[in-house]
Amino acid sequence: MGHRYAIIGTGRQGTAAAYDLGLFAEAEFILMADSDPAAAEAAAERVNTLLGRDLAQATALDARDQAGVISELEEHGVQAMLAATPYFMNLGLTQAAISTGIHMTDLGGNSEVVFAQLKLSAQAAKAGISIVPDCGLGPGMITTLALYAMEALDQAQDVFIWDCGLPQHPTEPWNYSLGFSIEGLTNEYDGDCVFIREGKTTLVPALAELERLEFPAPIGELEAFTTAGGITSAARTFAGKLRTLQNKTMRYPGHYAALKVIQQLGLLSTEPTEIDGHLVRPRSVLHALWEPQIRAEAGETDLALIRTLATGTLDGKPAQAQVDLQLLYDEKTGFTAMEQGTGWHASIFTAAVAAGEVEPGVVPVELALTGEAFVQQAARRGFDIRRELRT
Q1: Separation CA 141–CA 11 (nearest Å)
Q2: pLDDT, tens only, 94-113
Q3: Which CATH architecture has domain 3-136+340-377?
Q4: What does the pLDDT look like over 212-225, one tens digit per residue?
Q5: What is the spatial distance between Cα 294 and Cα 179, in angstroms, rounded to a whole number?
Q6: How far apart are the first and last CA of the chain?
Q7: What distance in Å separates the CA atoms of residue 285 and residue 80, rounded to the nearest whole number?
């Protein structure tokens, strides 16, 4: 007997996740729910076309309407849902999942929201369900592949993570294309990052600590800097066990300088400011002006990179484990690298909670599945994850 899933938010990542659930996760039904009925219909049609069967069904649903969400999930007998929504909707959807006894995953990205979700763990466990926040590429797979690196060592001490989603053919002036919600993007650039430094959970400002990394041609040099929301719960889980745990986002050279100008102008602020007698939210202005310039066009080819480096000991000797993953736009399905990395990591964890493979409660992504278990599933999707051990 198959599973009945729901995707709340049928944008790029949610559609990719639905396709993967239909292909690999014993799905007998997938509810595609979105506040935009046309978007839900288009997503369901695309999934059904790619799968060659009528599996996905569209419905109009406002994720902020908790009573409506509960009613829709119960009406369709959903067993597990993925919240592919902006981060600020995830706490309400978590409460809806607990009320209905339905397993849940989400795309996370905001530390405060994730910490609030984790406080509901006892309620979720009492309801007999598993909820895994912070799935996706980053947050999500960056932590899972860090686990995979750590599992190659007897004892890990310092763990460093770098990741990005970039256009294969960048254009000036931004050399960047946005393949997901701009709310999620600007959330990463503001506030504090939750890291481990000297064994302790530590707050580090976003858009700081610039460094440069070199990758094989044609990628070449990339710049990397701190961003928020990537390893939220892991920085608590591994405090006192690791000396260092941190992640940085990578961009083509020159992009960081532009972000610093945006930051210094105050355009990342969510606090209203008065302009010509009107209260204006600076970040909303940034979204309205910036998104049209960086939004990825349909069919635009992209790439996604993750590199994790764990240092420690193996057989009593110093050792390093490096894990690398590169994803490219998929010509066959039309899914971008970001859609694959984000949607398919989330779908793997959604399938796991539906199958009862994750303990009840609100479970941090780093405790839900081992790195090895994820890599086995990722290989079925064609992910080429390479781990190199150096002693």
Answers
A1: 19
A2: 999 999 999 999 999 888 99
A3: 3-Layer(aba) Sandwich (3.40)
A4: 999 998 899 999 99
A5: 9
A6: 47
A7: 36
